Every structure is written in C-alpha cells, then in structure tokens.
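Progress against Task 2.4 (sequence-to-structure conversion) is shown through the following example record, which the project officer requested during the mid-term review.
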Amino acid sequence: MAARFDPLTPTAARGGRTGVPAGPGRPAGSGARSRAWAPPGPLDLGLTLGPLRRGPADPTFRTTPDGSVWKTSRTPDGPATLRVAAAAHEVRAEAWGPGAAWALDTLPALLGADDDPAAFVPRHRLLHASHRRRPGLRLTRTGLVLESLIPTVLEQKVTADEAYRAWRRLVRQYGEPAPGPRQDLYVMPSARTWTLIPSWDWHKAGVDMKRSATILRAARVASRLEEAAAMDPLAAAQRLEAVPGIGPWTSAETLQRSNGAPDAVTTGDLHLPGIIGYALAGDRDADDAVMLELLAPYAGQRHRAARLVLLAGHAPPRRAPRMYRTDIGKI
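Structure tokens generated for the chain above:
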C-alpha cells in the first residue's frame, strides 16, 4: 500500500498544481480534461486509493512527492490516465485519453463519495484508536471489475512479490502506454488481449496454469462480470463466483475495490484470521470461523473493521515463514 499522507493538509496542498479549471470535463492543458470536487469530509488519498496499487512498481499506479496519485484504467470508453491531487479544501483531477470523461465523472465514487464512514461504530479499543487516527479513510469504488479481479487472481496462493512481478511483466508486455504526460505508466490489457497471451508468457511471468486458466475464463465473459459493479455485493459475488477458479477470497478482494463493499470480508486468507484474532482477542491461531465471530458486531462494515485492524499494525509475532516462493515447474 502507498505510504500514508493527508493530501488536504496545507503542506501537501502547497505541492499541488494550481490554476486548474474547476468545471467537470473542461479541457485543460496538454490535451487533458479536468474537474474539481469538494469531499464531504476529511480525505486521505493514500489510504483511500492505496488498495488499488499492486506493489511498489505497479505500472498502472504512481504516487509523487507532491501528494498526487496517478492511476490508469481501461474504462468503458477506452484507456484513461487520471491524476488526483489536493488544492486547499478540494480535490483537483486531470485525465487524459478516450476514457478521460468517464474517469472524471466517476471521480467522487473513486474517492469514497458512496462510502458512509459514520455507519461504523467501533466496539474495541484498538478499533476505536485506529478509526480515530484515520478520519480520512474512505472505501474506494472504481466501478471496474476486471481491473481488480485479474491482479487478485494473480495473488491466489502465492507470495505478494510473485504476484506483483507477474502483474508488472504482463501489463508492460501486453498493455499499452498510458495516455498523457507520464511515460512510465501503462494501461492494463483489454479482455481480448488477456485471452491471446500464449502459455509460455504466462510461464515466464511465473503464473501457473490454474491461475492463467481462471483469468482466461473471466476475460471471455468480461462484459457479464463488469455488470457486477452495479449490483449489490451479494449478487455481485454470486456473479463472480460462477466462474470456475473464483472463490469467496477472490470475489471479496475484488468487490472491496470495484464496488466499495464495506462488508466484503476476506475469508480463506492465510494470515488475516490470525491477525484479526490476535488484535481483537489475543488468539493468534484464529481461523475463519473465529474471525467472523469477532467481526460479527460490525456486520455491514466488516471490511472496514478488518482494514482498521491491519492499519493498526497489531500483528502477532512471526513464528516462522509460512509461505515460500512457488516453483511453477513442479505444479
């Protein structure tokens, strides 16, 4: 996740660009379109958009020293590059590419306008403290399913470093240079392009046949899966899990981002139950059942509760490595 920063502080705002027209979709310099938006409350760009970054060298996501966040997307209208920064008490955004207007139209949802932090009532001192320290945390909603689904599938049952490496390699090799001024950003491949990646390139990226087959199946029904972004979380999860290879872990991790689902708690994770159990009950050996019991008081907001636990950094001491790099040649 990106390092935490509060873009609505005067220090960060001084680093932002000024003089950007405020009207939504209004043309700006260098072929950009721009808009300004005033958040209804505190907003921390790093915490809100950080879950969209897949590793420190994600070719679709960058943060810069001035507090700006750069993100690429393959929108329904085509590729887009979005830059989001703070200026005084508003957020200013610029977008490039065929999908620029779509990216600007959906900016409020991306920055958590559909989220309701007031619905969360902490009932544990750790959660109370974590919640109080992070008033700018909002749950993002991208409205794009494959954008979150594919990198999540790559993360199935491998280390984060392996998944991030595969994502970088495949996006740079099969994606396209992002529109706009940055030459270090790429747009993820189209659904059709994912289906055309040969088996040897999946292998070179360290992706085994099970994960690549799941991505191929998802890409072939991409339009049906994208419809899930407008569904309620339960129906959306059922739509995603109808694809073989997509289970509750993958659907929850996807819908947390695409739908901004505050109750999409991740089950089937190797580490999360132990972290939640240790933080809330001192039980480092907790399983999914124990984790769900501990999160039951936060029904409707269980994903937010889990994020606040993770952000608190109260993890159990590591006993020994629990996951090793995968040798896909042995799979």
